[in-house]
Design goal:
- By secondary structure, the chain is α+β, with helices and mostly antiparallel strands.
- The protein has a single domain, classed as Hotdog Thioesterase (Thiol Ester Dehydrase, Chain A, Roll).
- It contains three helices and five strands.
- It has a five-stranded antiparallel β-sheet with strand order 1-3-4-5-2.
- A hairpin with a 2-residue loop joins strand 4 and strand 5.
- The longest helix has 16 residues.
- It is elongated and about 45 Å long.
- The mean pLDDT is 95.
Length: 132
């Protein structure tokens, strides 16, 4: 799944490069769009299933910087998943040139902060959208 993002002035540091922590926001948008594309949104998951997702781990390799007014493509794919965990590979590209590569694991937790199973309808859709 692909999400396009434009780099705004507020995303950059004094050199005009994207500030490193802002890439986390871009990756979050990519994962959120991925779930929306599957028919799920965070609000409904919380209201209907009393779960929400948190980042368990994040491994990022910064390869090249992005700059003010660049249009970036965030590629999001599922590497692996279980009943309460999704592991994503996410890449950020500009003009098909790799700028960032990441592996991020999110877990489903309930309102008490305990790891909780994702809804069955989500577990049925995830295999169809997993990378080979």
């Amino acid at each position: 799944m692909n999400t396009n993002i434009k780099v705004y002035y507020e995303d950059t540091d004094a050199s005009g490069r994207v500030y490193y922590a802002n890439y986390l926001k871009y990756l979050e948008r990519g994962r959120t769009d991925f779930l929306y594309n599957l028919g799920f949104n965070h609000r409904n998951l919380f209201i209907n299933n009393k779960i929400y997702f948190v980042v368990k781990s994040c491994n990022i390799e910064y390869i090249q910087p992005a700059y003010f007014e660049d249009v970036l493509n965030i590629k999001t794919s599922i590497i692996n998943f279980s009943k309460a965990k999704i592991e994503f590979n996410q890449q950020i590209l500009k003009d098909n040139k790799l700028l960032l590569d990441s592996n991020i694991i999110i877990v489903s937790i309930n309102i008490d902060g305990k790891i909780s199973k994702m809804p069955n309808e989500m577990l049925e859709i995830l295999p169809k959208n997993q990378s080979n």
